[in-house]
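Incident log, support desk, overnight shift.

02:14 A customer reports that sequence design results differ from what the structure should imply. Their input is reproduced verbatim below. On-call engineer (initials T.W.) acknowledged and began investigating.
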């Protein structure tokens, strides 16, 4: 994993070093539609970087990557029992996108509008939830300490590596001569349902029989909405 992250962090720098000249597609009346730029983004797919290269007045190709290590604690209620859970997710990807500007010569904000399509390769896409009782368990008049009840671990893995993406956004919202902002909204589609594995300790051992039911319930969990903001620097 450390080697993958190192590759992700150094690749944009290597590509930048190999670029000899900046490329701009300039419209004399309406200015630059696309430019060669380096972007830093943050949003629901995590943090990441991307390099964008114009293909013409209306299109640009963008290569980048994102990392999303996520940890949180959850409280829930099942029947009359309070449940505490610790959830961890890891979603890491490289992606290749095509940005298309349908109205580059508009005199309004529509000139900044882009539609995006592309593909991501997820070299890590998994989640884990560890759950246990918040209070002791009562079996009739017998009180069982929560530590003796045990813990239930649910592991979720998306084994497919490729996920198509579609979205829309605004770009080239300049805040200085070479720095601009962009916002986008879209979604990935995981091409296969997640695989689920359950393991329990102590009294919760044997819950593996519920794996099939949970897998079926999660079969539709394939859409991953992406809302993000990007800060870009033109070369």
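02:41 Re-run completed on a clean worker. Output:
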């Amino acid at each position: 994993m450390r080697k993958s992250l190192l590759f992700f962090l150094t690749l944009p720098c290597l590509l930048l070093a190999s670029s000899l000249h900046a490329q701009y597609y300039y419209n004399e009346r309406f200015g630059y539609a696309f430019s060669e730029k380096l972007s830093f983004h943050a949003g629901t797919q995590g943090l990441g970087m991307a390099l964008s290269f114009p293909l013409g007045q209306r299109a640009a190709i963008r290569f980048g990557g994102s990392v999303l290590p996520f940890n949180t604690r959850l409280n829930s209620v099942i029947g009359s029992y309070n449940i505490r859970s610790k959830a961890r997710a890891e979603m890491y990807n490289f992606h290749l996108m095509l940005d298309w500007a349908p109205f580059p010569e508009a005199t309004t904000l529509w000139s900044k509008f882009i539609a995006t399509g592309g593909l991501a390769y997820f070299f890590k896409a998994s989640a884990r939830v560890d759950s246990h009782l918040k209070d002791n368990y009562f079996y009739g008049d017998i009180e069982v300490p929560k530590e003796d009840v045990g813990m239930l671990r649910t592991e979720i893995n998306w084994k497919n590596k490729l996920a198509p993406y579609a979205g829309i956004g605004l770009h080239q919202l300049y805040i200085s001569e070479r720095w601009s902002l962009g916002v986008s909204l879209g979604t990935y589609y995981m091409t296969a349902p997640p695989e689920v594995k359950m393991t329990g300790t102590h009294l919760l051992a044997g819950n593996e029989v519920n794996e099939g039911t949970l897998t079926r319930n999660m079969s539709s969990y394939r859409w991953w909405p992406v809302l993000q903001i990007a800060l870009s620097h033109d070369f």
